[in-house]
Design brief:
The protein is α/β, with parallel strands linked by helices and about 220 residues long. It has one domain: P-loop containing nucleotide triphosphate hydrolases (Rossmann fold, 3-Layer(aba) Sandwich). About 30% of the residues lie in helices and about 25% in strands. The strands form two sheets. A five-stranded parallel beta sheet has the order 6-7-8-3-9. The chain has a four-stranded antiparallel beta sheet with strand order 2-1-4-5, with helices on one face. A hairpin with a 2-residue loop joins strand 4 and strand 5. The structure holds adenosine-5'-triphosphate and magnesium ion (MG).
Length: about 220
């Protein structure tokens, strides 16, 4: 039995927009362990990105709790949430969310700025960008990159702080098959080294990598 990284307890999430109530989850219970790769599947709009945002404390639930290493995420104030997020979680978003005003190098450096040793991260950035074949584009701004290149920058940025929990929302959505395999292999490798890796995916390929598949259909 591995150590539990994230525990989701009776989570209920509803959006209200344009006079409509969208109940995304009702009493959702899930548990994610270290040392495993989880595939989150389900049709478009079933709540995969919402779940990732809730775990990352970027959204608040209506009811229920999320424990991150036994800390109740929604009992923390904003500052404590930022600290926890920065210390434990790496994000790869569906829509990259790179900072358009920063070049590739600075985008990757950004999550390290809250750390004391951020000035000495140059070698790590070079190594990581070489691995993800984006080292020839360090001075480029996001709009000067292809979709797949932006995605690889987002992956470098998620990994630079060596997070224990990796949340990846369709990390290979814009990549060709070969690059998809490289990234999924890496994420698998990280889970084998003890990280908790959660990957949202539409593609059945994820089934070849995941230790567990969670189908979010019907919000259960
Ligand atoms: N900020 C918001 N306000 C209102 N409704 C929202 C908001 N964000 C998401 N929704 C709705 O909640 C539902 C779940 O959205 P979510 O983005 O989690 O889906 P998803 O499973 O990630 O879909 P996809 O596979 O297309 O990325 C959708 O029906 C969406 O329209
Ligand atoms: Mg989504």
């Amino acid at each position: 039995m591995n150590i539990v990284a994230i525990k989701i307890i009776n989570l209920t999430k509803t959006y209200f927009a344009h006079n409509e109530k969208i109940e995304v989850f009702k009493n959702l219970n899930l548990s994610f362990e270290y040392g495993k790769l989880y595939g989150i599947m389900g049709h478009s709009g079933c709540g995969k990105s919402t779940l990732i945002k809730l775990i990352g404390m970027l959204e608040k639930p209506d009811k229920g709790d999320i424990l991150i290493e036994e800390k109740n995420a929604f009992m923390l104030d904003d500052m404590e949430q930022s600290k926890l997020r920065n210390a434990k979680i790496g994000f790869i978003f569906q829509d990259y969310l790179l900072d358009e005003h920063l070049n590739v190098y600075d985008n990757i450096l950004l999550p390290t700025l809250l750390k004391p040793n951020w000035k000495s991260r140059n070698n790590e950035i070079i190594e990581l960008t070489k691995k993800y074949k984006i080292d020839k584009r360090l001075k480029h701004f996001p709009k000067e990159l292809s979709g797949g290149e932006q995605q690889r920058v987002a992956i470098c940025r998620a990994l630079i702080n060596n997070p224990n929990i990796i949340l990846a929302d369709e990390p290979t959505g814009n990549l060709d098959k070969k690059n998809e395999e490289i990234i999924l292999n890496d994420l698998k490798e990280l889970s084998k080294k003890g990280k908790c890796v959660i990957v949202v995916s539409h593609s059945d390929v994820i089934k070849n990598y995941a230790d567990e598949i969670i189908d979010l259909e019907e919000g259960v």
